[in-house]
Each structure stands twice: as C-alpha cells, then as structure tokens.
Amino acid sequence: MGGLPADRVVPSEHDTAEWERRVDALMTLLSGVKGGPPRMTVDELRKNIEAIGPEAYDKMSYYERWVTSITQTMIQRGIITTDELGQKMEAVRARPEAKCKK
Amino acid sequence: MQEVAGSAGGQYPTSYRAVARRFAPGERVRVRATAPLGHIRTPFYIRGHVGVIERYCGAFPNPEELAQMRDGLPAQPLYRVRFLQTEVWPDYAGEANDTIDIEIFQHWLEGLKGGADETSPPPSDPPRARP
Amino acid sequence: MSAQQDRGEYQALTYFQLMEVSLRELLVEKGVVSEQAVSDTVEDMRRRGPETGARVVAKAWVDAEFKRLLLENGTRACEAMGIDVPVLKLVVVENTPQVHNMIVCTLCSCYPRMLLGIPPDWYKSRNYRSRAVREPRAVLAEFGLQIAEDVTIRVHDSTADMRYMVLPMRPAGTEGWNEARLASIVNRDSMIGVAVPTIPKP
C-alpha cells in the first residue's frame, strides 16, 4: 500500500468500543502473548486480512477486518467449524438481549 | 546519525536455528524484483531498489511461512535497510538526504559487491552503518 | 454493567459484533480462552497508553546513560524502568537538529502497542500508510509540522519484527524541569513523529 495515491490524512480517532477491545484481547490471547499456547500468529491474521480483498478497506472497519480474519483462521486451523459458527450466530442473534451499545 | 553496534547476534538475538548471515552494516544490497503469491512482508514499492544495510536485527522465523501455519524455520536474518527517497520515488518532493528505512529479510536481498562470496561468514566485528 | 444500571442507547448487533460474540463463546466453550482472560486482557490493554512512553522519553532526556541504553536496546531500557512490554522488540530512533524521524507501517498497522497502547485510527488509515513513505513532508505539514529543508527526514516502515518509537528532542525552555513535568509535554503524536513536544502556553 505504501506509495499509492491517497487523500489527506484525517487525524481521526474514535473511542475504541468494548467489542473492539475484546477482539484485540482475543488476538493477544490467541497469539500466546499472555503465556497460553499460541493458537495462531499475527502473520495468519495479516494474511487473512489480505485475503478479504480490496473491499476490506472500503466496507469494513479495522476491527471488523480483525474479527473476520481471526474467525477465518480459527476455521482454517480446525479449532471451530463453519457449522458451529453458523449455529452459534443464529443462537446469539435470537437472544432478546443481543444488543450492543450505540 | 544514530549508530547501533552490530552484535554478532543482532540487536534482538534469538535462539532459533537460523540461516547463515550474509550481510554486514554498510553493505549495499538490492531488493529482489519478484512478485510471488502468498503473504509477503517486502513492500511492493521497494522491490528492485538499492539500499544500504543500516543494522542487523537478528534472525526470525519467516513470516511468509508462519502465515501458512508452518513454523518458518530455519529463521531468516532480518536487516534494516536504508534507501534514499530520491532513488525510490521518481517524483520525490522532499530533500536529497531524506531516507526510508525498512526491515527486509535476507532472502529478499542480493549483494552488490563484485565477486561477493556467498559462503563467506560475516565479519566478526561488522563496521557501523554510515550511509 | 447491567442493563438496569446503564441507560445508554442500544441497537441490534451488527454482523461483525455478532461474529465477535459467537467466536468468543465458542472459544470459551472449547476451553481455548476464558471470559476472565478476555476481560483481564481488555483491562490490561486499556491501561497501556502514551503516558508510559512519555515517561521513557522524559527519563532519556535527563539521564544520558539511560538514553544510551534506550537507543541500543529499547526493550531492555523499558524493562529497566519496570515497564512490562511482552514480545516487544523496540527500536528507538532519535530526533536531532539534523534528523527528524517518522514511523509508519505500510503493510498493516504495526505499532509498539505494549508500550504506547492501541494506535489511533489515522495511523491505521489507507491515506497515512500510502503517503507517509512517499510524501512525508506533505503529510507532516497536514499535521501542522513544518520541517526545515536542512533537516533530513527518516521514515521507518515497520515491516517485520521490530517496533519503533521516536525519541523527540527536548524543547528549549525546559531546563530544570523534573521528569514528571517533562513527561507531561510528550504526547503520542511526537513519539510517532508527526508532532514535536511543545511547551504549553501559560
């Protein structure tokens, strides 16, 4: 990406949302920084973000790319399966309290 | 200019089984101009360009392999390589001495010295980088 | 925080928030992580921020031997101050009257997180990552920082295992200040290299 034409840098920042902090924490834990057995590497995180393709930067935020990549990696490593994920997502969605603070 | 001693083990020595080190601070190197597939940490913009070894960082597992769920061993020597911006960008609008420093793994670098012996061991007391 | 205590507005989970909850619950069920570890790690990361980096800079400004160690091995210097920086391989680059340093990660958003906390959005943005390497002076000007023609700009692209922090120059007018006061004028942007420490107007 270095050197490609781009626009003015907007010095924006947002308060990191709790769900984003949890994604960040999951990556820290899964990469073994906190002492547990490493389940994935930052290299796999990066590779799977690259695999999302160019739309990743237009349509997804930073931690949306991260959670997508971590989840793909867990599937690739056989720690979770696509079906388990689908079942769980349906179940969570159906909960009345499945909401996030605006 | 900041100078850092190039210790035999690098600024951050590791204990991985590693490929032999080929370059010393101050040496001119070219970044290979190839574009294979997979996860690569050598930026497109620097491929084919010539720079100078600024320091030896240490030997680390190959990220191209780590990305594919392999262990990336033997570890590859990693260097910081310094390039003149005016040589990297044809339309560089800054000053002649401006530089860009990039960490590049050894297997992406070619030596420029005529008659370089690829199997010779690195000097035990590498000269400090003076680009 | 329970729903009764918190009166903030709520909305349905987005697809990605749903994914986060689902992934985390599956990993907990499988014993890969625990909810406690996740919340402990969230709190740990929340505590990491530029104030810690500012203390390192301030110490380097007053202690020449510490500064020498910091430039030689940034991680060991932080650890010598009692700062916990797991996995960090810190390279500190020093601003001088002749050289101004600027940090970027064009490939993703590598940043010395264990020392400085989570990086700002703009550091991760496509625009910064594309332009910082190619037109650093223009980018710095957009941040309000003009660098003189006779000062060399060194951009550092963190492409591999090292992580970078700029050691800014100590501004004139800070003679006799203690470390805490010095640290108070060192902000995050000056340790990335898009700003320099300034003395607040009285």
Task: Characterise this structure.
The complex is a heterotrimer of chains A (102), B (131) and C (202). Chain A has helices spanning 18-30, 42-52, 55-59, 62-76, 82-94, and one strand at 99-101. Chain A is mainly alpha-helical. Chain A has one domain. Chain B is mostly beta strands. Chain B has a domain at 28-111: SH3 type barrels (Roll). In chain B, 6% of the residues lie in helices and 26% in strands. Chain B has helices at residues 63-66, 85-88, and strands at 28-31, 50-60, 76-84, 99-105, 109-111. Chain B has a 5-stranded antiparallel β-sheet. Chain B is globular. Chain B starts with 27 loop residues before the first strand and ends in a 20-residue tail after the last strand. In chain B, 44% of the residues are buried. Chain C has 202 residues and is α/β, with parallel strands linked by helices. Chain C folds into 2 domains: 15-46, no CATH class; 48-192, Alpha-Beta Complex (Nitrile Hydratase, Chain A). A two-stranded parallel sheet of chain C has the order 2-5. A two-stranded parallel sheet of chain C has the order 3-4. The N and C termini of chain C lie far apart (41 Å). Mean pLDDT of chain C is 94; it is low at 1-5. Chains A and C meet through α1, α4, α5 and β1 of A and β1, α1, α2, α7 and α8 of C.
How does the SSE layout of this entry go?
The complex is a heterotrimer of chains A (102), B (131) and C (202).
Chain A: H1 18-30, H2 42-52, H3 55-59, H4 62-76, H5 82-94, E1 99-101
Chain B: E1 28-31, E2 50-60, H1 63-66, E3 76-84, H2 85-88, E4 99-105, E5 109-111
Antiparallel strand pairs in B: 1-2, 1-5, 2-3, 3-4
Chain C: E1 10-12, H1 15-29, H2 35-47, H3 50-62, H4 64-72, H5 74-80, E2 90-94, E3 99-104, H6 113-116, H7 121-124, H8 126-134, H9 136-142, E4 152-157, E5 163-167, H10 179-183, H11 188-192
Parallel strand pairs in C: 2-5, 3-4
Helix pairs in contact in C: 3-4, 4-5, 8-9
List keywords for this structure.
A: 102 residues; mainly alpha; globular; C: 202 residues; Nitrile Hydratase, Chain A; 2 domains; 11 helices
